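From the pipeline queue, job 12 of 40. The input is one protein chain; the requested action is below.

Action: predict structure.
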Amino acid sequence: MRKSLLFLMPMLLLAATAFPQDAVVGTIRNGEGTAVVGATVVIKGTNVHAIADTSGRFSIPAKKAYPFILLISSLGYKLEEVKVTALPPAPLTITLTSDASLSEVVISSRRRIETAQEVPIPISVVSGALVADAGAFNVNRLKEIIPTVQLYSSNPRNTTLNVRGLGSTFGLTNDGIDPGVGFYVDGVYYARPAATTLDFVDIEQIEVLRGPQGTLFGKNTTAGAFNITTRSASFTPEANFEVSYGNYGYIQAKAAVSGPLSKKFAARVSFSGTQRDGTLYNVVTEKHINDLNNLGLRGQLVYTPSDKVKITLTGDNSKQHPEGYAQVIAGVAPTLRPAYRQFRQIIADLNYKLPSENPFDRLVDHNTPWRSGNELGGVSLNVDAKIGNGTLTSTTAWRYWNWDPSNDRDFTGLAVLQLSQATSKHKQWTQEVRYAGNLTSRLSGVVGVFGIWQDLKTDPAHIEESGNAQWRFSQSSNSELWATPGLFDGYGIKTTSRLKTFGGAVFGQLDWAITDQLHVLPGLRYNYDKKQVDYDRQTYGGLQTDDPALIALKNIVYTNQTFNADVDESNVSGQVTVSYKPTKGVNTFATYSTSYKPIGVNLGGLPTSGGKAMTELARIKPESVKHFEIGVKTSPAKNATVNLVYHHTDIKDYQTQVQTAEVGVNRGYLANAEKVRVQGVELDASLKIRSALSLYGALAYTDGKYVSFKNAPVPLEETGGPSAFKDISGGALPGISKWAGSIGGEVVSNPGIILGQNARFFAGADAYFRSSFSSSPSPSKYLNIDGYTLFNARVGFRTLNGLTVFVWGRNLLNKDYFEQLLPAAGNAGHYAAVLGDPRTYGVTIRYSYHQ
């Protein structure tokens, strides 16, 4: 792929030929003549806006009849108004002056253009420029900037995206459950969590909303939402190119070209590719594995038939094809099983030795290749029409996901589980129509309808197959029949399943300005969900025999399972927020909301009791969420913000993923905990001193626990005890660190001459830390992950002609740390780890061209 990345760069540069100019363009600088990067330009009275690039240049479509006023704002500068009476014959030059007052980040999460400090919602905003400079090219790296975000991924399908520790089940994914964190790109909902492992492509801004957001977004979001905006097609020629090189054979290339096709049409094409060699070494194949191999393409066509209508057609495709996501054995827990069933005795009897007892030697000997073929893509059509004092928006989208994996779920060089391949295909269709705007001088809001149709099916079947060492790991008695030659070799299950769902909603939220200082914001949502499941699992292979005793042994490992489920339900939820602004620099708010996650269905196999599948677990109850938070957003000093929020969430019938000792349920199954509670305090702050210094930081205290979970599976070390279930009420929820935080900033020099160009040096650094957390749904003393701290830095220069060069390093102290721990199928005692990346470093060269 490296050759293709390098080849595409000059091709895309050639594509940036001059297009006819038909927009208001210009450059924004400060009093020192330095480009003001990230300045916001808005046509007053509309939601049409643009963001200044790294050279301070902007291009904004003239979508309002002349004359109109441009509002130009940036952190630490006075708001500037520029009147435009006609299309300027030459680019504008706009100078901003520094100001003690603080201009704020512009967001669109409430379906209007407003500033983050004005919004009575806990929200974190990360610009595309910071995403690029910090190397946060996917959600997993973004969590190092936003500590309230948690992402755990043992492969793209088995990905957990949470906010404040809530949202999705922790551990291996069960396809029959809805995510609780909404993931939106340009207004399109992405249903599959695998999307979060792909590279961002041409990002303008990422907004992370914390807490339930079902009255603002089409898909119900019980824990939060990602609102990602990509860069829009421009009506003036522009091109952006970037290439990075680093250790471990790292190369990343990005490019985007955009410009008008005519007076009413503009186009944009974006590309991103990432390649890196593996960070684990397979001592048997003598190959490095866990590489990166990502490719993303995005195309956009914008049509503006009038100044009141904008139509955007977007298509995208992203792929991952690494030999990756392998886990390395991290340790062995003694269980309550007899001595002959302990992991170390088992491997001694099989004359096997682990390649290393230290997981950070990064050595494996897996005998099944790791494959994570992950492909997502789709097409969307968005129509924005200004009607009255608001905007009517229609977003129609079709998306697909193809999943082609291969895993070694026993994590050893033994043929225990020699095949684990859950190949799947998913299609979704979504339609959202909403109206957002001012209803009266005191009343504004958003109202909408949303529908989503999903079809998820095996392709053609999910396969789990045992090898010739399975008998020793499954052996549960001293009977010599377990050692019958070939009894389990090639014995497995083929599962065909199909999940068809429909979700519909009507939602709305009002903003009633009782006074200029006091606002009341009620919201309401009606949700309807229908799910149809057909599940059929059949055994195959192994020793063909009529001996009832041998058949009974085989049935201990795998059994046939068939069930159907049909879910049809509706729910009403809502929220009310009271916002009070006692002064211009202080915004206080309090919110109470209820939310809801639909019934879940088990699609990973059911546990058995008395040799029969527990079909009563085929479906699990919906979640019922009650949420309260109170917060304050302040601007206490020149160019500074300090925000504080307390949140408290109670969930009844919490949907959780639990591990079982049965090999036939090796991805776990869904269950309900009677009640959980998450509460905490979050502090975030920022400071900017003109254009010379910017700082940001966030600190989160989060306490999550099972208030009541009386029938939970036992933890790994209690496997084989008198009971397979345990009351873990009062135990910690998995994946939640009590303390997490991030801090970062950048210092910029005065303008000077670098390589014969007007330029400024810059140096940036950031740190992320989190305290210890549980990596098991049932708290285990062996599956706890120690806290860790990561340091990253970058230093380089930016010229005024669009060239940026910097060197960077991530995990500079080369900290060894786990991202996730998970037991092997069958609970023999050994458990594996998803390892964090070692120290990486490299150089990035970026160039931006604008006419």
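Job complete. Residues 3-21 have pLDDT under 50 and may be disordered.
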